[in-house]
Write a structure and sequence with these properties.
- The structure holds two protein chains of two kinds.
- By secondary structure, chain A is mainly α.
- In chain A, strand 1 and strand 2 form a beta hairpin.
- Chain B has one domain.
- Chain B is about 80% helix and about 0% strand.
- Chain B starts with a helix and ends in a 14-residue tail after the last helix.
- Classes of the chains: A mainly alpha, B mainly alpha.
- At the A-B interface, helix 6, helix 7, helix 9 and helix 10 of A face helix 5, helix 6, helix 7 and helix 8 of B.
Amino acid sequence: MLLAAILLVPVCTSLVVLVSPFRRWAGWLTMLAMAATLALAAAAVQATLGSGAVSGAAGWLVCDGLGALIVVLVAFVAFTAAVYSNGYLRRRASHAQNDDGGSYYPLFNIFVASMLAVPLMANVALLWVALELTTLLSAFLVGFESTPEALEAAWKYAILTTLGAIIALLGVLILYWGTRIAGEQAFTWNELIAAAPAMPPTLVWPAFLLILIGFGTKVGLVPMHTWLPDAHSQAPSPICALLSGVEVSTALYVILRLFAVLSRVPGSEAGPWFIVFGVLSVGVATILMVQVRDYKRMFAFSTVEHMGIILLAVGLGSVDARFAAAYQITAHALAKSFCFFAAGLIVLALGEQRIAAVRGLGRRSPVAAVSFLAGALAITGMPPSAVFASELLILKAGLARGQYLVVGFLALFIVIGFAAIMRHATRMTFGKEVDMAEAPVGRLWSAGAAPASCLTALVITAIPLVVFGLCMPAGLAGLLNLAGTAMGR
Amino acid sequence: MPSTSLLLSIEALAAGVFLLTALGTVAARQLLTCFHLFVWQSLLLSASAALLGLALSSPHLLAVAAITLATKTMLIPWLLRKTVHDEVYRIREIDQVLNIPTSLLLALALAGVGYVFFVEMLGGMAVPAYALVNLPIGVAVLLLGAFTLTVRREAVAQLLALLVAENGVFFAGIAIVPNLPAIAELAAAVDVPVYTLVVGLLTRRIHSELGTTMVGRLTALRED
C-alpha cells in the first residue's frame, strides 16, 4: 500500500492540476504533493531499514536498500524543485510573451512519478517501460522554453535516449531468456540473481553489454554522452536539478544492479567494464569542462564526471567501495541540484547563460554569486560538502583494493575538474564587468531580486548536503549499507 | 491445420523479407517510401508472431501479433499523419549525411557483422531453429535502424528509423521469450505509440517554431 501510494500521489496530482479550477493553484498543489511523496518515501526507507526489503501491490512493487535510496533522493529533489519552480515560473510568467506555462506542472508531476517507478518496479520488463517513460514525459520539459536551442536539445534527448532504451530492451529480453533457460519463472532482480549461476555465460555477456551501452546512453557515459550537456543546459533550472540530480541516477541504478547478477555467472565479472567506462567518462568530462562557455553546461559535464565516479566505485568490487558509491549517489544528488538552483538564480538575475557575459556577479547579484560559489565548491568536493567525504571514501577503497593506477587517474581528473569549475566560477563572481552593450541581449528574461521560494529551496538542499558531509547519521549509514549490499550480494 | 514445420518455414521466409524491408528503408530516397516500408515491416512482424504463435501454440504470441497489428500498422501511421504536417511527407529527397550507395554499403557491412556475431554466439547452444533465425535478423535490423538514424537529417525519417530498430528488437523477442507476462506486452504496446506521439508533437513544434524539420542541421549546441 505504501509503495503504491508513493506512485499514486504524483500521478493523481498530475491529473488534478490539468483541470481548470485547480490550475491556478498548480504550483502550491505540486509542492504539497511532493511534500507528501517525500514523507511516504521516508516511511518506505524506515520500513526497509527495519526488514531489509518491503513489497507492495501484490508483489508488483518492491523496495530494497538501493531502491529505497533512489526513491528518497528522487522524492527529496522533486520536493525542492517544486518549491523552486514556484518562484521561478512566476518570474518567468511575468516576462514571457507567449506564456504556455500550463503544461509545466502536469508534466512535472508525471515525470516525477515515472522516476519513482523505476526503483520500485519488481518486474525488469516493466522497469524498462518506466525508464523509457522518464524520457518521454520529460522531453517537453527540456524543450519548455521553445527557443531553437531548447528544441534542438529536446530532440537529441528524446531520439538518442530512446535509441539507447531500444538497444537495452534487447539486452533485457536476452536476460529474460537466460532466466527461463536457468529454470526460473518470474523476471525480478531476485530471480535473476538466483538464476545467474545456471545462466549460459554466452547469453549474459551480450545482454550485459547491450544494457550497459543502451542505458549508459541515458546515464551519459562517454562516448554516448553527447545529448546530455545540451538537454541539461537548456531545460528550465528546476528541471535541470531533476534531470542531473536524480534522473541519470535512476538509469545508472539499472546498470549497478547488473553487477550482482554478473558476479554470480561463472567466469564473468562486470568490474573491469565499469572501471573502463568510469575512468573514460571522468576523464573526458573534466577535460571538456575546461573549455565550456555556458555555466549550466559546465554543471552538466560535471554530471557525466560524477556518473563515471560512481560506476568506477562499484567496479572496484569491495564492500567499502559499494558503500562509498551509494554515498556518492546521495552527495551528488544533493550537490548537483543545489548547483542548478544556484545557476537558475543567475538566469533570473541576468537572463544570460554564457560564462563570458557573467562578470562581477558579486556586485550585480550577491545572493546568486554566493550560492553559485558555494555550489561550485560543493560539487568539486570541498569540505564540508558531502561530496568531499564520499570521494575520499572511494579513493580509500580503491587504494585498499590495490588499484593504484585507477586511483591515480581518478584523483588527477578530480583535480582537473576542480580547477576548471573554480576558474570559471571565480571569473564569473569577481571578474571585471564587461560592457553589456557589446554582448547580445539576454535571450530569456531578467529582472530583480531572487524569489523567496528559490532561496528556500537552496537552504533546504544545503542542510543535508553539509550535515551528511560533517557526520554520518545512523539512519543514513544503515541505508547506504543496505544499498551497497543490494549492489553486491 | 498446417504442420508445425510448414509454419516455421513460412516464418523463416517472412524473416528474410523483414530484413529486406529494413534494407529498403536505408536505400529509400523518399520519405513516403520509408513510411510505407515501415508499415509493411510491421505487418511482417505481426505475421511472424502469429506464425510462431500457431506453431508453438502460444496464446502470448497471438496476443503480440494482434497488438502489433493494431498499434504499428494502424495507430502509429495514423498518429504520424495527424501530428506531422503534410508538407513533410511530400519531401522527395531525404537529406542525408552520406550518399545512399555509400550508406547502403556501410549498413550492409554493419548488419552482416551483427548477424554473424550472434549466429556464432548461438552456435554452441542448444537453441530452437526459429530463435537461430529471428535473433540474428532482429539484431541486424536493430543495427540498420540505428545506422539510418545517424545518417538522416530529417526528423520524421529519424523517427521511422527508430521504429524500424524497435521492430528488430521485437522480432528477436518473439522468438527468444515467447512467454513474457501479459502486462509487459501491454505496457510495451502503450509505450511505442506514446513515443511516436511525443516525438511527432516535438517535430510539429520544431516545424512551427523553426520552419524546418531538418533536425540534423540544428547545430547551435556543440563543443567549440
